[in-house]
Amino acid sequence: MTNPILNELTSLGIHFQAIEHEPAFTVSQAEEHWTQLQGTACKNLFLRNKKGDKHYLIVLQANTSFDIKRWQNQFENERMSFGSEQRLSTYLKVEAGSLSPLSIINDDTNTVELHFEKSLLEAHHLIIHPNVNTISISIATTDLLQYIQGKAKRYKPLVY
Question: Which of 38, 58, 82, 84 could form a disulfide with 45 if both were Cys (CB 3.0 to 4.6 A apart)?
Answer without folding.
Answer: 58
